[in-house]
Design brief:
By secondary structure, the chain is of the alpha+beta class. Helices cover about 30% and strands about 30% of the residues. Helix 7 (about 155-165) runs parallel beside helix 14, helix 12 (about 380-390) packs parallel to helix 16 and helix 14 (about 440-450) packs parallel to helix 15 (about 460-470). The protein has 16 helices and 34 strands. Strands 17-16-22-13-14-21-18-19 form an eight-stranded antiparallel sheet, covered by helices on one side. A six-stranded mixed sheet has the order 7-8-6-9-10-11, sandwiched between helices. Strands 27-28-33-30-29-34 form a six-stranded antiparallel beta barrel. The chain is globular. The structure holds guanosine-5'-diphosphate (GDP). Guanosine-5'-diphosphate binds near residues 107, 114, 115 and 208.
Amino acid sequence: MSDNDNKQIVLPFSINVRDLADKLEASPIQVIKVLMANGVMASINQTVDFDTAAVVASELGFEPELEQVAEDAKQEDQGEIPLWRQTIAGEKEKDLKPRPPVISMLGHVDHGKTSLLDAIRQTNVAGGEEGGITQHIGAYQIDHKGRKITFLDTPGHAAFTSMRARGAQGADIVVLVVAADDGVMPQTREAANHAMAAKVPIIVAMNKMDLPAANPELVKRQLSEIGLVPDDWDGDTIVVPVSAKKKEGLDDLLEAILLVADNQKIEANPNGKILGTVVEAELDKTRGVMATLLLQNGTIKVGDTILAGKALGRIKAMFDYRGERITQAGPSTPIVVMGLNDVPAAGDLFRKVASEKDARAIVADLESREQTHSVARKTTLEDLFEQLQAGEEQELRLIVKADVQGSLEPIVNSLNEIGDKEPDVSINILHAETGNITESDVMLAAASDAIVVGFAVDADNAAERLAEKEGVSIRLYTIIYRLTEDIEKAIKGMLEPEMVEKVIGRAKVLAIFKVSKYSTAAGCRVIDGELRRNGKIRVIRNSEVVYEGEIGSLKRGKDDVREVREGFECGVSLKQFHEFEEGDLLECYVIEQQKF
Ligand code: GDP
């Protein structure tokens, strides 16, 4: 393993400009400038060889070293490993072969994602089969000039990001569809941010060019404003004008995809370990579980036993995206398999296992680790400082939602200022937009270990549920400086845990008992939630609080108990209060540290 002190840097045989910039902790622009000064013209997605990268590294104060270490060590050196790399981690460089790129179409609703996916499929399937494909399996593959491209036919960034949130590979390249007559819209921005957070290169398909209202220049300006500067404006983003309706520009788009793919080193080991991602799955009445899988590494065969999420089984039959029976498939191939004992979720990872017995042991292990996993993964402002100190994080990733643009801008500016002031930690705002916190925001946060902060907005129900499930922290504010202050304090480790009161149950007093000369107990029925021995009680009479204090004893019959659930009767005495009256309401509450 190589030394990893600050100045030394290990670089591979070839690296693209974006990754090089990441490694050198510089902006891609800085890197491109140094390259230009040395007579190399390269765009952000272009790959440079070690010698060239080494020159840049030296100029930026590093001591470059050619990567020759074992795969395991390499992973550590690379810091954030691109997702496609994770799936082939452990494979030897010499065994890697190019594989078809996997493309995901993202964009604003109605801008033409579905139409474009359909148009590409129709114009690129082998003759005679056109229109014959009726079954939608969530992915398909085309041939363009003898090279294959795989499309995820599940448009929308929810699918893309949910895969990533589960640690799976969403796609190698994102095609961002923008209608030329409508321009950059909120979901365009959101999708772009999702792709950027995933460090997946973006190609823009400027669709609906057939419409008279198409305004490509305006759209390009809007794209530049969100950091996607078109290549003909000296930027790094390829923008391809297309019309899904007239089937125009499709070849150019495919060409652009292959161009970007060539700079990405999209590879797998066809003879390596067999693993991939579940694209979608359903239970078919006659055929059992039909799961569409995208194989990412290895070659899968009928008869293999696989574990997909927690579903497992021997592959009884396998089909390609056209529904034709196949016996084996290689990397980047979408396949439908029969034989799983359960329906896995989209985005679950799958892999080949030696036997069903092994698989069961793995499932048991997964289940036992699941609880700890969701807790361990959680990023909260409260534990952020510890992570910073432990050197686990140098970056606080945020998703910012605010009610109006007028409040969003100052918040983003102040947050950036806080980040600029801190030497050891940077603030990375993955997405900033007006509107309530949605499921999509939470998904992006889950996929990126980010925190969601909202100003004068709410989180919708679905977002809250997902946040709970994924352990994503949502913090809501109504005063701007409280928001920025919390972030600042969190970075400095000065955030005081916020204690909140949580009502856990209510009971109605049915009868009063004298326990001793001085004390009384109330015979109650719990009408909702529960009463807890270590909770506090508020005595409410005619809607007014007459007492608040600690529980002295909580009994079921003669037994002391720790809690009493809804519907049960119990005896309650309080430490300092004895004047119960029939009909009093006892509200039980606990004070706990605010969990976000
Ligand atoms: P999605 O929501 O992004 O999947 O968008 P759709 O593919 O469903 O398209 C939305 C609408 O735009 C449909 O009515 C399409 O017929 C129309 N549309 C899609 N592509 C084009 C195009 O290139 N030109 C024109 N004129 N209309 C298009």
